[in-house]
Amino acid sequence: MTSHLDGNLVLRDRIVPGRVTFDSHIRDLEPLKNAGKRYILPGFIDGHVHGGGGADTMDGVEAIETLARFHMAHGTTTILPTTITAPWNDVMNALRAVAEVCQRGIENGPRIHGAHLEGPFVSPHKLGAQPPFAIPPSPDKVQDAIATGCVRVVTLAPELEYAESAMRSFAQADVRVSLGHTTTDYDGAERAICLVCGAGGTIGATHLFNAMSPIEGRKPGPVTALMCSDTAYAEMIFDTHHVHPASFRLASRVMGDRLLFVTDAMRGTGEPEGPSSLGGQDVLIQDGVVRLPGGSLAGSVLTLDQALRNAVQAGKSLPEAAKLVSTNAAAYLGLHDRGAISPELLADFTILDENLHVTEVWVNGKRAH
């Protein structure tokens, strides 16, 4: 049984008033003279999200479903629940929970593509808001993670012991290797990029600019290596607190379709401001910013619909902003069946009103929100 939606279709390079006809997949696009004021975008994809709606990935199956439904209400139709640096048994329990949700799905909910393993394979000297449980990516730990069958992205500091063999193993298992929480320099990042690509993998960066060395005139750092690469993708938390709009415009101009937005959202996203927690640590949410007691940024309370509005406010067109919250992430994750309004792709839609606020979300051709 087919359905249709009328609206302004946000395509890869333009906006066209039209009708999209679909069942579980998009079957046809038809231009219309007038389609009202709403916009039809491809469903958003968040490859780095710890929590939301009072729930955290580390809390298990029920919490993963809760955070997934929360973010779906903000337009996200594909989610990678993300771990935090914690004792290894806790990390493995979280991965098993993600695997369980992947296997059974969420009824009338978003797609859970797999897990982003952010920690514990990070530098103890670039923890950011990660708790102090960093460990090297030893071969046994790497195989434990891969064996869960759900890890799709791993954040890894390439200067760690065992890092080279770990990057090679993850790449060969079709896990995206994302450089982050790292003290590595330009040369170290370049070596990691070459190693992962040489192993047939896909390289990325975890929240570009954050928890890595900055760009300096005589010390270009890992940011320069990632931005100048022809193959590396990079996440960005564009809440305008983690990254200045000018830095966003620079990265976007250099990287183009290799830049993608993530939320890095934590438990308190969508909750009243005030005290909350992240990985067992007390944090304070105030004026839309999450900080540790010492003042450091600690994750975000961002949603992808707000990130899209921020991009438009920073000068991007709506089709360009839609790429940042959907199309580019689909390419990075190898999800060639979604990420655009195009025939034969999945019927995952986010409907926005004229002010770019979410009014409806469709997953697999069914209205889910």
**Series of H and E elements:** EEEEEEEHEHEEHEHEHEHEHEEEEHHEEE
Low-confidence stretches: none
Decide which structural class fits the backbone: alpha/beta
Rg for CA atoms: 19 Å
N-end to C-end Cα span: 20 Å
Mean pLDDT value: 97
Record field, number of beta strands: 21
- Which strand-content bin applies to the residues? 25-35%
Query: Any idea what the shape is?
Result: globular
Query: What is the makeup of the main sheet?
Result: 7 strands, mixed
Q: Order of strands across the biggest sheet? A: 3-2-1-4-19-20-21
State the helix count.
9
Helical content, roughly? 25-40%
Q: Based on the structure, what is the oligomeric state of the protein chains?
A: single chain
Report on this structure.
Helix 3 (139-147) runs parallel beside helix 4, helix 4 (163-172) runs parallel beside helix 5 (186-198) and helix 8 crosses helix 9 (318-333). The protein has helices spanning 61-72, 88-104, 139-147, 163-172, 186-198, 221-228, 245-255, 304-313, 318-333, and strands spanning 3-10, 15-22, 26-31, 39-42, 44-49, 51-52, 55-56, 76-81, 111-112, 115-118, 151-156, 176-179, 203-205, 234-236, 259-261, 274-278, 281-286, 289-291, 349-352, 358-363, 366-367. The two termini are 20 Å apart. The chain has 369 residues and is α/β, with parallel strands linked by helices. The strands form six sheets. A seven-stranded mixed β-sheet has the order 3-2-1-4-19-20-21, covered by helices on one side. The model has no long low-confidence stretch (mean pLDDT 97). A hairpin with a 2-residue loop joins strand 20 and strand 21. It is globular, with a radius of gyration of 19 Å. It has nine helices and 21 strands. Belongs to the metallo-dependent hydrolases superfamily. NagA family. One of its GO terms (biological process) is N-acetylglucosamine catabolic process. This is N-acetylglucosamine-6-phosphate deacetylase.
